[in-house]
Amino acid sequence: MDNYIRPLSDAVFTIASDDLWIESLAIQQLHTTANLPNMQRVVGMPDLHPGRGYPIGAAFFSVGRFYPALVGNDIGCGMALWQTDILARKYNADKFEKRLSDLDDVAEESWLEENLPSAFAQHPWCSSLGSIGGGNHFAELQQVDQIINAELFALAGLDAQHLQLLVHSGSRGVPLLSCQACYDPCGV
């Protein structure tokens, strides 16, 4: 397995295989963002694509400054990796897919009634809560085939004998409401 962390400059990196096509405008936006005051590192992820001035599908590390425009409408959208109890050697994709097909892909209505704030109850995205969202969002099982740093791997609580669940989830419209709440009073 190759290491797909590619330095483009001292502060700009991408995480992508050689076969992944990335729009040149997105790369240009990574470099532009890296030149913002106090910006230390900029990393484009495999889903990197151009945004309105700043790239989408990237992580940014700045010191002493917060840039709301870099978060933008992606507030609450994110990726997470979980250790599962599924043994890699016993995993059967066909059987697993059959078991998953019986699951609902949204939250149960009774749970929503008990847990959803009343202000959100009539929002258009309410019916899709509990899903991962649309677009480039996904949930996938992954198997570790190489450990590059055993100490960090162990510190993360991961076990190569088990499958990992990687999820890129959506934020179901909450970011737009959040941005409007912050930007509208400021005339932005």
Automatic annotation (TrEMBL):
Binding positions (GMP): N136, H137, F138, A139, E140
UniProt-annotated binding residues for Mn(2+) 2: H168
Record note on cofactor: Binds 2 manganese ions per subunit.
Enzyme class, first EC level, given as a word: ligase
Pfam families noted in UniProt: RtcB
GO biological process terms, semicolon-separated: RNA processing; RNA repair
A GO term for molecular function: RNA ligase (ATP) activity
Residues noted as binding Mn(2+) 1 in the record, renumbered to the chain: D74, H137
Entry keywords, A to Z: GTP-binding, Ligase, Manganese, Metal-binding, Nucleotide-binding, RNA repair
EC number(s) on file: 6.5.1.8
InterPro entries the record matches: RtcB, RtcB-like_sf, RtcB2
Co-factor requirement: Mn(2+)
Domain of life: Bacteria
Reaction catalysis annotation: a 3'-end 3'-phospho-ribonucleotide-RNA + a 5'-end dephospho-ribonucleoside-RNA + GTP = a ribonucleotidyl-ribonucleotide-RNA + GMP + diphosphate
Entry protein name: 3'-phosphate/5'-hydroxy nucleic acid ligase
Organism: Shigella flexneri K-315
